[in-house]
Design a protein that fits this description.
heterodimer, A: mainly alpha, two-stranded antiparallel sheet, B: mainly alpha, 14 helices
């Protein structure tokens, strides 16, 4: 791509270079200060024991060994992966089902209503809606248990039992985020060529065949994108858990982000917390690069 | 054959409407938490925990709202912190990202593509991996517990630069070239010619940035500890402890005020919000 005056004499070119650097200066300096430098410092800190008075002292891989051998941190790692697996599966799965259901002609006011209903949770802070869901999930005064009892079911200890708390957080997460994936899927479904679908109907292909042979292959890159995007978000889960269960009961819902904050700013185990955030970042980088590799190999049209 | 075709088409219409009806019911359930939160904010304090819960406001009496403003919690101050941070970050990003995007899309200079690549790498790092050094740095420079400190770290974003650059590259650049021939300065070209073309990209970026910033929790919780410096998402959690036991209605009144700006933006500019937010997902 050529740019303005790319082939002009060198004086002009120098002037353009000066302008170029000047234009990116504010953004680049802020980026170096608040993203790149902190990332590098975190990586360095992860190999140290950090003390507010003595500063950092190099301890090699100790922090990582501690993370990978400590039973508690492993459970927290496992919690995060488990949360990610289920949250991603249901967010993307439900999002696709909703998109299939809504991808049909309807009056404009219904369209507005559906967008409102399914997208409003996406744009309201998790911190706000988690408080509301906290009241919904209450044991005795909870809204959901009130209706369960009225309908003749046994109440559920949504957040106070270690066997159900994670599930309850995942349910809320799906309620909150699935609309995002739904919207992306609707856009993808509208790209499925109509003449191919019509031809398949004429040939008598039933719904499942049309779905599995035409729609699914066509939108597979989008499915893949949604899975990766959802995974990156889910790995970082923080406020919904902090607000609903504070990581409990016990450690049953504690996530890596919570561990990082508690270790860094609660116990001032800066080096150890840095190593946990490095592990988290590496997992996210692996997921992201999977997307790059797989989108070339497996995804077919 | 003909009649059979008619029949399946008629059946298809019925199936369509059946599915839409089911979806409408699901849609109403999706909205329940919001209906509940607004309705409960109007309940008299004495009835706060009375069952059944309301999903339609029982009165339109703003007593609880006034009580929040009159309480010991500096709610207005907290609200102002949130407004200040969200506006500053939005304006800041619109300025810094647009300037950088102009250079990356329209100018040529040594190292341009490598610098752009370096900025793109920033998309991959979660907040968790930058927060510790930022906290330590802020503690030393006095920016800790300052609402403006939180704003400062978000005055630019890799995503914003990327979004505006991509948009700019999809626009013709003949006008800019002609202006340069006429001897116009680069800033003048940027301001007079490029900027007006960017309106759709900038309104999308502005809306995403405002709502995202309004919703930040992780960073705000770490960097802003005293009540006076908090933003709404963190403060709501605290309010629940302060007023929560006896006073669900007041918490929900505070919450209604906290979610209002984002809901209003969404009601007015629904399409723009959805486009913006989904665009922010499609980074690669």
């Amino acid at each position: 791509m050529t740019t303005i005056a790319a082939n002009r004499p060198s004086e002009l070119r120098r002037a353009q270079a000066r302008a170029g650097y000047l234009f990116i200066l504010p953004s680049f300096v802020l980026y170096l200060t608040f993203v790149l430098a902190p990332v590098i410092v975190t990586f360095l800190l992860s190999f140290t024991y950090y003390d507010a008075i003595d500063g950092a002292s190099f301890v090699g891989l100790d922090n990582f060994v501690r993370f990978l051998t400590d039973e508690r941190s492993l459970q927290i790692f496992w919690n995060t992966l488990r949360f990610t697996f289920f949250a991603v599966t249901f967010n993307v799965g439900v999002g696709l089902a909703l998109a299939m259901a809504l991808n049909r002609a309807m009056p404009a006011f219904l369209l507005y209503f559906f967008r409102l209903a399914f997208f409003l949770p996406v744009i309201i802070a998790a911190a706000f809606v988690s408080i509301v869901w906290g009241y919904f999930y209450g044991d005795d005064l909870g809204v959901i248990n009130y209706y369960l009892i009225r309908l003749g079911f046994a109440p559920v200890r949504w957040l106070t039992s270690s066997s159900t708390a994670m599930m309850s957080i995942i349910i809320m997460d799906v309620w909150k985020n699935t609309g995002f994936f739904m919207i992306i899927f609707i856009a993808a479904l509208q790209g499925v060529p109509k003449n191919i679908m019509d031809a398949a109907v004429m040939d008598g292909a039933n719904w499942w065949r049309r779905f599995s042979r035409i729609i699914l292959p066509f939108i597979s890159p989008v499915i893949f994108f949604n899975i990766v995007y959802a995974s990156i978000g889910a790995m970082q889960v923080y406020e919904s858990i902090v607000i609903l269960t504070q990581g409990g009961p016990g450690d049953s819902t504690r996530s890596m982000s919570i561990l990082i904050v508690e270790e860094a700013f609660g116990s001032f185990e800066i080096g150890y917390a840095a190593s946990v955030s490095v592990v988290l970042t590496l997992v996210i980088l692996v997921i992201t690069s999977l997307q790059l590799v797989a989108s070339r190999r497996w995804v077919s049209y | 054959m003909f009649s059979r075709g008619m029949q399946t088409r008629a059946t298809a219409r019925w199936v369509d409407w059946g599915i839409i009806a089911v979806m409408a019911v699901i849609g109403i359930f999706m909205l329940m938490p919001f209906l509940w939160l607004f309705s409960m904010s109007f309940r008299p304090v004495a009835d706060a925990y009375k069952m059944p819960p309301s999903f339609i406001p029982p009165t339109l009496d703003f007593t609880n709202y006034r009580a929040v403003l009159a309480s010991d919690v500096p709610f207005l101050r907290i609200y102002w912190n949130s407004v200040q941070i969200a506006v500053l970050v939005t304006v800041g990003q619109l300025v810094t990202c647009t300037l950088a995007a102009f250079a990356f899309a329209r100018l040529s200079f040594p190292g341009r593509d490598s610098l752009f690549f370096v900025m793109l790498i920033g998309l991959m790092f979660p907040a968790q991996v930058t927060i510790i050094p930022i906290y330590l740095g802020y503690a030393q420079t006095g920016l800790l517990n300052q609402p403006l400190g939180l704003a400062l770290m978000y005055l630019t974003s890799s995503f914003g630069v990327f979004l505006v650059r991509q948009f700019m590259r999809s626009q013709p650049k003949a006008l800019e070239e002609a202006a340069l021939m006429d001897g116009a300065g680069y800033f003048k070209i940027f301001w007079r010619i490029s900027l007006p073309q960017l309106r759709p990209a900038l309104s999308a970026l502005g809306i995403i940035t405002f709502t995202q910033t309004w919703n930040y929790y992780f960073q705000a919780r770490v960097l802003l500890e005293p009540q006076d410096s908090m933003t709404l998402p963190v403060a709501m959690d605290m309010l629940r402890g302060f007023m929560g036991q006896g006073n669900l209605s007041m918490v929900m009144a505070a919450m209604s005020m906290a979610v209002l700006p984002v809901i209003l933006i969404f009601l007015v500019a629904q399409k723009l919000v959805i486009e913006g937010v989904t665009m922010s997902g499609i980074k690669h």
